[in-house]
């Protein structure tokens, strides 16, 4: 894989779906030049919620988090591009939308820590992107293709 091919897991959370923000989130990532390589509109069950958020098990907010993430459909996605995991995290902003800078997805679209619109793999957690992609997607659900504008997004493409 070239260095433009890092993949990261992104999810429009139930609040984003209910508020009609799927398109807004996809648009921001698309316009940045990131490439959508997988997408699944789905309902997360208890088991998947516990696996996905396993690191938070035992914390006071864990049960509420599981309840929220299973409360309605989500849009699970895989996005690809140079430094994709860290770049998406920067676009998301701080975990608490109250601390997220304007211009970020959470800073523009959210107000509450428990309803913070979007999930993206943690770039500081080595391999989190691949683990989360594997948890939500089978290999054959991810698509290999070139975006027509890649030569304009990347100088060395
Ligand atoms: P992240 O989503 O920015 O990676 P994490 O620390 O991994 O942040 O937390 C996962 C999710 O758990 C957050 O996105 C948020 O929805 C929820 N969460 C984290 N901390 C709290 C809290 O203190 N109270 C309520 N919900 C929280």
Automatic annotation (TrEMBL):
CDD domains: NDPk_I. The keyword Magnesium applies. GO terms for molecular function: ATP binding; metal ion binding; nucleoside diphosphate kinase activity. One of its GO terms (cellular component) is cytoplasm. Its main location: cytoplasm. ATP binds at residues 13, 61, 89, 95, 106, 116. The active site is at residue 119. It catalyses: a 2'-deoxyribonucleoside 5'-diphosphate + ATP = a 2'-deoxyribonucleoside 5'-triphosphate + ADP; a ribonucleoside 5'-diphosphate + ATP = a ribonucleoside 5'-triphosphate + ADP. InterPro entries: NDK-like_dom (IPR034907), NDK-like_dom_sf (IPR036850), Nucleoside_diP_kinase (IPR001564). Its EC number is 2.7.4.6. It is an enzyme of class 2 (transferase). It comes from the Archaea. SMART domains: NDK. Residues 5-144 form the Nucleoside diphosphate kinase-like domain. Its cofactor is Mg(2+). One of its GO terms (biological process) is UTP biosynthetic process. Keywords: ATP-binding, Cytoplasm, Kinase, Magnesium, Metal-binding, Nucleotide metabolism, Nucleotide-binding, Phosphoprotein, Transferase. It is found in: Cytoplasm. SUPFAM superfamilies: Nucleoside diphosphate kinase, NDK. Belongs to the NDK family. Major role in the synthesis of nucleoside triphosphates other than ATP. The ATP gamma phosphate is transferred to the NDP beta phosphate via a ping-pong mechanism, using a phosphorylated active-site intermediate. This is Nucleoside diphosphate kinase.
């Amino acid at each position: 894989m070239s260095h433009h091919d890092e993949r990261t897991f992104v999810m429009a959370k139930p609040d984003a779906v209910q508020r009609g923000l799927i398109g807004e989130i996809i648009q921001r990532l698309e316009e940045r030049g990131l490439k959508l390589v997988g997408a699944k509109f789905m309902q997360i069950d208890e088991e998947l919620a516990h696996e996905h958020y396993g690191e938070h098990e035992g914390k006071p907010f864990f049960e509420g988090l599981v309840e929220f993430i299973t409360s309605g459909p989500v849009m699970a996605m895989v996005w690809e591009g140079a430094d994709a995991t860290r770049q998406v995290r920067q676009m998301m902003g701080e975990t608490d939308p109250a601390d997220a800078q304007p211009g970020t997805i959470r800073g523009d679209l959210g107000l509450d820590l428990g309803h913070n619109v979007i999930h993206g793999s943690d770039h500081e957690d080595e391999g989190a992107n691949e683990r989360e992609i594997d948890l939500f997607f089978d290999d054959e659900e991810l698509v290999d293709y070139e975006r027509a504008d890649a030569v304009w997004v990347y100088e060395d493409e």
